[in-house]
Amino acid sequence: MTDVKMKDSVAYAENNPEDIHNKLSSEDDNELRHPPHRHSKTRHKVSMVRAINGTSTQIYMLSAAILGILCAVLMATIIGLCVSYKGLSEKHIFLSQNSSQENSNLKQLIGNYHQLTATLMKVQTNFQEAVGVKDSMQRERDRDRLEKEHLQRQKEALVNEEVKLQSRITVLEKNCERCPVGWELLHSCYFFSPTETGRKLSWHRSREECKKSGADLAVIDSQEKQEFISRILNGKRTSRESWFTAGYWIGLRDVETEGVWKWLNGTELTEGFWMEGEPNDQISKEDCAATFRKENPLMTWNDAPCDHTLKWICERKLQP
Ligand code: 2F8
Ligand code: CA
């Protein structure tokens, strides 16, 4: 066979493989029945064609498989992306909704914050006002407390005074009409020489006047008597004269021994109610004592010359 013929045969075989196959099968059969001894080149070429055909088929199948796999992978990827996109989209919507909700909440919170700030300022103002009121009330309470204590002290003083007056009333009732008219009563009857006449006498002349009434110059040997006489003197009208001419002789002197003061009843002085700096026995001539109208009822005495002229106080003992 020539090359041209061979090429034609090959082309034919490529285009009509079944026909060739059939032919070859019949030829093979012939060859089996009649062992080959001719056309060996042709058979070899046909075998090659067969091999080529098989390989092409395998490549096609392999390509188709790969293509199929790629398609499947592509589809899976697309599906996955779709699912993922859907999820992301839902998440986005959810987050958007949440974000607007959060914004709304935030605005609400800011509004609440401003309200609370305003309320807090009001509360602070009210608190400061309340503190002011409390301080004012505290001061008022302190004032009331001091006032109450003052009133309490006054009340106690009045109660004491009432007790004294009550006892004096008792004594007065008991001794009613036991002193002459114009005499004052305190355990004894006391007479104060009248201011109106302006009559003044020496210590001795004063004593004589007292004796005319069955009395003697007053013995003031207790604080009670001293306070009693001071109260009566402070109730009398004041005159414009010098203080040392406005006194009243009492029954006390230190004629026997200078500085040793004795009452007319012979008892020695134990508790004196001298003015500041007295007795001073001025120019060594002051041996008789007198009492004066002074602010302090317990510091009213002065020693003066016995011939000095003053008013006087008599004392007459009550009859038992
Ligand atoms: O200053 C006290 C003094 O005052 C008078 O003298 C200025 C009295 N004199 C008479 O009462 C007469 C003093 O006795 C007295 O000490
Ligand atoms: Ca004196």
Automatic annotation (TrEMBL):
CDD domains the UniProt entry points to: CLECT_DC-SIGN_like
Region of interest: Disordered: 15-43
Source taxon at top rank: Eukaryota
MF terms (GO), sorted A to Z: carbohydrate binding
Residue stretches in coiled coil: 134-175
InterPro entries: C-type_lectin-like, C-type_lectin-like/link_sf, C-type_lectin/snaclec_domain, C-type_lectin_CS, CD209-like_CTLD, CTDL_fold
SUPFAM superfamilies to which the protein is assigned, alphabetical: C-type lectin-like
Stretches with biased composition (Basic and acidic residues): 18-34
Domain C-type lectin: 185-315
Keywords on record: Coiled coil, Disulfide bond, Lectin, Membrane, Transmembrane, Transmembrane helix
Transmembrane segments annotated in the record for this chain: 59-83
Protein name: C-type lectin domain-containing protein
